Amino acid sequence: MIIVAAMEKRGLMLDFGQVLVRPQPAAVVAGMAALAELDVDEFHRRYWRHRPGYDRGEPANQYWRRVLGESAPAARVIDETIAALIDADARSWTDYREELWALAAAFRARGGATAFLSNGVPEMMARVRAERRLDDYFDVVLVSYEVGYTKPDPRIYELCLSRLGVSAPSALFVDDRLENVEGARRLGIETVLFRGDASMDDVRRWTAI
């Protein structure tokens, strides 16, 4: 849902996972579950249950050991398993939603300010930065592990607004998670709860400055 406000539209803040990229491919998730020697549903539960600490800066090795738990392989191969999981995880977040990247670039070219605002981890971001010139699309790139707190903590939105140089009512935040959207909305930021390609028209209408 989008909140309409009669105010200049100045800042576009976009989440990464499942917004700027599509959901993780099922085949890649199944491959990670196989590496972890877990069924897919259990792997999925552990993956997301322990993710907040990783997003806040916990080292990858600690995160993946938490995910593996009792299913962790023998000490002689655990480092290889974790390295393979890190690589697959980063690869799973690279199905780029090209139309939204183009929309961000166009909004910026017309005078708007743009931000990449994500809960994320260094290994994923290293891959994204290797594949994308983020400076071509975004004035601000703000990722949770760099600041030590995650959405929906109000501090991360406030920091993003400050770096963009825009006020909350003049900004739009787009995210696929309700709790993150509600966190932004409480600060007076306009929001779109992103539901895939069906939500593109909401973003497109707001950015038509």
Describe the structure.
- The chain is an alpha/beta fold.
- The chain folds into 2 domains: 11-23 and 94-206, Rossmann fold; 26-91.
- 52% of the residues lie in helices and 11% in strands.
- It contains 12 helices and 5 strands.
- The protein has helices at residues 16-20, 26-36, 40-49, 51-55, 60-68, 75-91, 98-109, 122-131, 144-147, 154-164, 178-185, 200-206, and strands spanning 11-14, 113-118, 140-143, 171-175, 190-193.
- It has a 5-stranded parallel β-sheet with strand order 3-2-1-4-5, with helices on both faces.
- Helix 2 (26-36) packs across helix 3, helix 2 (26-36) packs antiparallel against helix 6 (75-91) and helix 3 crosses helix 5 (60-68).
- The longest helix is centred in the middle third of the chain and has 17 residues, at 75-91.
- The radius of gyration is 18 Å and the shape is elongated.
Radius of gyration: 18 Å
Largest sheet: 5 strands, parallel
Number of domains: 2
For the largest beta sheet, what order do the strands appear in spatially? Answer: 3-2-1-4-5
Q: Flag low-confidence runs.
A: 1-6
Let me know the CATH homologous superfamily of the largest domain: HAD superfamily/HAD-like
CATH topology of the largest domain: Rossmann fold
The secondary structure category is alpha/beta
Number of helical stretches of at least 4 residues: 12
CA-based shape = elongated
The whole-number mean of residue pLDDT values reads 94
Q: What's the total number of strands?
A: 5
Terminal residue distance: 19 Å
At the first level of CATH, what is the class of the largest domain? Alpha Beta
| N-to-C order of helices and strands | EHHHHHHHEHEHHEHEH
Helix share bin: 40-55%
Q: Strand percentage, roughly? A: 5-15%
Which CATH architecture of the largest domain would you pick? 3-Layer(aba) Sandwich
